[in-house]
Amino acid sequence: MNYWLMKTEPDEFSIDDLKRRKSEPWTGVRNYQARNYMRDGMRRGDGVLFYHSSCAVPGVAGVAEVAVSAYADPTQFDPKSAYFDAGSPREAPRWLMVDVKYKRKLKRVIALTELKQHDELNGMILLRPGNRLSVMPVTKPEWDFVLGLE
DNA sequence: GCCAACGTTGGC
DNA sequence: GCCAACGTTGGC
């Protein structure tokens, strides 16, 4: 079992939205590295730290789980979608997604500023300067430590 | 809204 | 295959 962190803008899709929807196809990832993590690393049952970005208090807001491993993201073939990619071949789709299932909302948001204060989390990809990945791996010790802050 | 950091694009 | 220009991300 592996552990991950996935970013979302809560104005677009928050942990409360996921709670309502129970499970959600994670459309719109258009970064090769993030795609590769989903394709090569993510398996059903893996843990996901649900991270809110571009908001008042960026941070980990909940826990989710990979419900369905990587498959083609249909929005890449939809000309009306913001995620449309005219260059993606039907027979070899360029972009993949996973389904993410709600587990729980944290009692409080564990803020990015707080994560930065702990030496134990120095190695987190999330905290690397300039990091822009929306899907990234988290180690088991990082996972335990972050949730231990709750 | 600013801007630093980074990925992608496209001319050569 | 280099690299400048451009677009996007995301914290602040």
Short description:
Helix content is 20%, strand content 33%. With 150 residues, the chain is of the alpha+beta class. A 6-stranded mixed β-sheet has the order 2-5-4-3-1-6.
Question: Describe it for me?
Answer:
It is a single chain. By secondary structure, the chain is an alpha+beta fold. The protein is built from four helices and six strands, in the order E-H-E-H-E-E-E-H-E-H. It binds a DNA duplex (12 and 12 nucleotides) through residues 7, 9, 31-33, 53-54, 58, 112, 129-132, 134.
Strand runs, count: 6
Bin the strand percentage.
Answer: 25-35%
What is the CA-atom radius of gyration, in angstroms? Answer: 15 Å
What structural class should be given to the helix and strand makeup?
Answer: alpha+beta
Topology:
Layout lengths: L2 E6 L6 H7 L1 E3 L6 H10 L5 E6 L6 E14 L23 E16 H4 L19 E4 L1 H9 L2
Parallel strand pairs: 1-3
Antiparallel strand pairs: 1-6, 2-5, 3-4, 4-5
This protein binds a DNA duplex (12 and 12 nucleotides) through loops.
Feature tags:
single chain, DNA-binding, alpha+beta, 150 residues
